Structure prediction request, 514 residues.
Amino acid sequence: MVFAVQDVPATYRDHAKRRTEKRQMELSLYEFLGNAWPLIEPGVEYVDNWHIEYVAEWLEMVTDGRIRRLAICEPPRHMKSILGTIAWPCWEWTSRPELQYIITSYADMLSSYHSRKRRDILRSDWYRSYWPDTRISPLMDQNNFFESTAGGHMIASSIMGTATGLGGNRVIIDDPMNPRMAESEAERDRTNQTVSNTLFSRLNDKNRDAMVLYMQRLNRDDTFAHLTGVDDDMIPTDTPVFEKNGWTIVRLPAVCEQDMVIEFPKSEKTVFRAKGDALWEGREGLAVLNSIRSEHGEEYFTAQYQQRAMMPGGNIIKLAWLNNRYYQPPHTLPVEAIITSWDAALKDKESSSYVVGQVWGRYRLENYLLDQVRGRWDFPTTLNQIRSVLADWPGATATLIEDAANGPAIISTLRSEVAGIVPVTPEGSKIARLKAVSPLFANGHVWYPDAATADWMPDYVREISTFSGIESKNKRSDQVDATSQALSYLERTYGLRSLQDPTRRPKYFFASKL
Prediction:
């Protein structure tokens, strides 16, 4: 007997509809999330957006075995934890309940919250009605550690609490750093080493199992940078996806930086995103984002919302401030004072900081970087470099030497042969010292030799314009330190005099020797 559609029994239609819904959810994490939403956020309206489906497809690429290292950087409150930490593991268990997970966050409370949400979904009547064979084992059913009857498990813990002997097919790292602690180098090192040394070792099969990182950027040496090796000056702005060191990186800034067409990895759907568009207008539109930017500042917004720990155009010292501030021989420089500024390394080894010596001149409000030497030198070589620079610049009236690292030994050795040595004890952090002299850059009172006559200038500009004060051990700040030391001294010594006697004439007129 052939039934007309209207004659098909209601129960049969209901079963057919449920089979279709079940199949759609098993094929699409995005569909699963939409249906599971009332269990995840009861009473909260689900606000859809293209980026949710887009990120879901990248997670499906991990499920399909096509990606084994995936890093997703997107702004706070944009669903990365709900989609990737709560929904994705439960979705994978619909077809593979034998999968084992280790899921971590920076805090036990956050990890426990996510774990409770996963457990609520898996134990719900809704989930069991579609996937009755996927059940939590009554033998291991705790909030932070539960098993499936098929042998899978989900372990939730803080980053520092992952010293378990159990492993996983998936290691999920969700916001591994506390934003309030991210400026501490010790805290960053502790977190990054735990991720590298402990979490990587927990993968059951290093060749096939996957590690997924979700986070908003915090600084240039956060866990994202540590794992992927990405420096902020290499991040593309014309695509949300790029690869580095075996990682597939998906970066979604809150405000689009340039026009782009975004192609979905599986469905090959495309979305056009225009420069200046908000990532999720229905949830946090431009008005909200602009208020966040205004309240918290550009540095915070660029890192946590734009997913770039280095602000475009520079951090503390903006690249635009350095433009058109170059002098070229035979430009004659009027200078009333010349000083040298030295930042000494601790040891003469490849991993140590450089020794940097700079020559600066001052006239009225203007500060001129006249010369620089830089290298990884041992103690005797450093002494000879100082002597050589002072011989080239006999007008130098002060030689600033940071009273740290090899500084005290240098001061002690040279004090009897060099007049005008000024030991400098650093006050405050590197950030504070550079910020204190940043108005000199912003107002155009710092000048440099042209790169055509000083081959060290490109590296100098790169370092000083990308310095954020939250550098890793492999990021150099020696040129920054020598600069802030020199400018602070010049401003302190000659700044008030410049205001009191603006007609004062220079002691020296010369063309740069460079």
Remarks:
- The domain at 13-254 is CATH 3.40.50.300 (Rossmann fold).
- DSSP finds 16 helices and 20 strands in the chain.
- The chain has a mean pLDDT of 87.
